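Supplementary Text 2. Reproducibility record for the structural model of the 385-residue chain.

All settings were left at their defaults, and a single model was retained for analysis rather than an ensemble. We include the record here because the model underlies the residue-level annotations in Supplementary Table 4.
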Amino acid sequence: MNGGLRIVRVANFVTPVSGGLRTALRHLGAGYLASGHQPVLIVPGARRSDEWTEQGRVITLPGPPMPGSGGYRVLRDRRQVTAVLDELAPDRLEVSDRTTLRWTGAWAKTHGVRSMMVSHESATGVLGTWGLPPRLARRLADRLNSRTAQAYDTVLCTTAWAAEEFERIGAANLAQAPLGVDLTTMHPDRRDPALRARLAGPHQVLLVMCSRLSAEKRPERALQALAELRRRHRVPAVLAVAGTGPLRARLERQAAELRLPVRFLGHLAERSDVAALLATADAVIAPGPVETFGLAALETLACGTPVAVSRSSALPQVVGPAGLAAADTGSGFADAVTQLLTRPEPERRATARTRAEQFSWNAATTAFLTAHHAATAPAAHHLTP
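Retained model, structure tokens:
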């Protein structure tokens, strides 16, 4: 492959069943490739591999699993990663993990490579989910973010909400670029009456949560919301859960103990299956309080379905009038879902789709390449489902 810049991307916490980050990396890589650049992605895995894909070259390096993470792996061997970076000789470095991979900023400076850290989460929020008091979480996040801003030429955030914690420390190298959504695969036409008949009765409300089942996502709030809807609001709701993670067994026990009608579907490998589920739902619950963009929520809107989101996350900015911000409790999400369902169905579905159409991967690719000081191309690109 000739021409363009060699943009090497390094990411942790990507698995075959991970969601938003893996999707974003795939679409951005395809966009870089379509713009004439040479994207290379380095991720951890069980064994080493090197392959050419629709998003460019993907190099997998052996990385140990994180205990209790449900399968996430990390690139722990710095010498191994350094050797690959030295061999690739990138023109640009893009990193997605400001904790264990922050050292790559020093490598880039030493080699004269322009570098960018992509902030995929709120450090303040993540530390808060670990139980740290707000003032301590903020102080530690400021320290972490200051080191990150100093280590890279650019820090890129996908929302103003995510950028706020860098603005408060006075980071001068901050950029913003939204992510996008696949408006072709994720479409209201994916609605499937047969799927609905399998998941819910004719007069029941079908709720969906599409999320990794891990502590920071707060998936238990969807079950709490279901209980509140059925008990307090008298809504005959059922819940389908797409996704897997370390909390699945606990959530299954909780649903059984409370006698809640919950179907755990596990990881849906086919994007068309995810689209069908989201398009078939009456409403979707996105309870994660530290989401900085929330691709699953945006995919929900693209499928024409409204979504209740955590008011503590960036998602209220993303979903706009197509969803509702909920208090971070089961009853808060139950209230939000109830309000969404009072809207006439054609109106709420049209509003959802219209909002999603404001976000495209072509626009996201252009914004990311601009932050890289790299040439952009107007030609559209498309990933097959």
